[in-house]
Here is the input.
Amino acid sequence: MNWLTNIIRPRIRSLVGAKEVPDNLWQKCPGCENLLFTRDLEARFNVCSHCGHHLRLPVKQRLNMLFDDGKYELIELPKVPSDPLKFRDSKKYADRLRDTQAKTGLKDAITVAAGTVGGQKIVIAVFNFNFMGGSMGMAVGEGIVRASEEAVSRRAALMIVPSSGGARMQEGILSLMQMPRTMIAVERVKRARLPYIVLLTDPTTGGVSASFAMVGDIHMAEPGATIGFAGRRVIEETVRETLPKDFQTAEYLREHGMVDMVVPRAEMRETLARILRLLMDRGASQGDVIGGSGKAKATGGGKSLSLNPPANTSSQGQLAAKRALRQVRAAKRALENLEGKESGRTRVGQ
Amino acid sequence: MITLDFEKPVLELENKIAELRHVNNGSGVNIAVEINRMQTKVDRLLQVAYGRLTPAQKVQVARHPGRPHFFDYVRSLIEDFTPLAGDRLFAEDEALVGGLGRFRGRSCVILGQEKGNDTQSRIRHNFGMPRPEGYRKAQRLMAMAGQFNLPIITLVDTAGAYPGVDAEARGQSEAIARSIESCLRAPVPIISVIIGEGGSGGAIAIATADRVYMLEHSIYSVISPEGCASILWRSASQAQEAAAALRLTAQDLLGFGLVDSIIPEPVGGAHRHREETIRRVGEAIESALIALTPWEAENIKESRAQKYLNFGRQLPAA
Here is the structure.
């Protein structure tokens, strides 16, 4: 049959013209198995119109969705040694990496972009799960270090959107070292008193969840996302029992106090913008409270032990600070209440 | 004592020597010369065997149940050891233990994983696999060290953090992440020794330190060779290949510049010469402590951070 596919079909095609119908016109929803029209799906940020299942969202669409007017600036990431271990399983890691780079058109599993959300400056680092399961090796670690530096120098918030199975085994111990390295990176953002927000998407597990992804000021999660430390299979083998269906889901984590809110994609941008406004545009008491200029020195006899926010010496300032803090807390409570209702609604809707 | 495969020829000789000694005791015949000759041979065999351990064999040695564990080190090296229990949130986790003590005259906080030595104690210590409570206790102890300006010594020996339903429910990930954070925020010197197994996140949670040492036959890896094999080779029986591919030996880590130095084990491994091994670990910790003293809180935190940020950057670029 080779002559048919190799000779006849291309000829017919050249006569008829290029194929206009893309291969992936329809896809099946992994949640409810309904067929979804790809173009509709994209318009709904890859959320199933039948069951609300959140399919993975490609990085570009994610950035378009989040940034004001879909406008952002890509941050160039530093080059790293690509195959420190000269690792090989059934295939050389160097080849695997090259193939994946060719297939995805990306250098590695992370993309960093800067812009504004709701008018507030932000740097967003997004994992690409299609790039070797979003695994964290040296390139990803360096990308997060870079993103943090960028946030600090721009005085912008930092948001990281993990979608990762964990550390990249093929980089061995060097991938494990990305846990402290990324922790150091986000610590710099915190020290500069800039908001560090984590948006947990499917999946966030292993070394990624056990480092920068779990120490955000605010943890948002996408509905249904798998979030946990150990893989489901590993746990099942350890405890020798089948696990509940909702185990390690975003909703499960919220119930267990590990994420602040489960946010449907349709509300993501608005929620993020509101949080950024609350944390960065602090109203009348701007500059008084949480560091403001970031130049204030710690009090307490010059001891460098203090990790507390620099205290404001004027009593007026302190009052303003307390007032502002109360406002922020109240707003946060209101937000949580609202969120509680919303997620409740979503659940009923499903 | 458990015998590893590659130690079998040595074991036969050792048994013969024991027999000869027995005979020697009974009869007046002088076979001391013979015993000495055989003992020399045993030492040479061990030297050869341990001089060229494969990565897979290193994994076996690192996991050898006869190796000294956390409490063995504490008993020999720490005076006035005062164990402290509990995370003040949920429970006490005996997989990750620690407390206050005096090392070479200096008050310090010491903590680490304890695997246990028999069935009962292994179960009590959960085979050295901590739950979130363990890591939260570590955070608490490290904060206390900062509060009272005490150096921190950590002894790492774990297959990894416990993968269980309860551990997940109470936020294993967050507990490990915060434990790394506690290491990074500690305004005092942290000295870590990998004494056996450095199992992934469960290890680095308490091993993000100013000085990290590895015992000669210890291992430190992002994933167990078995786990790696079952994922990448789709068969746990390929663990030997995985052990080699992962570059998890102390010598590999030193080569990558990720540990500060290797503490040599006596010939035949730590499980054969427990006291000597412990003594050497003590020496290493002491010299590290001397080198890091006096310290200044901000400087020591910053140089620790800088050290980790530099990891990998000096390797040949792509």
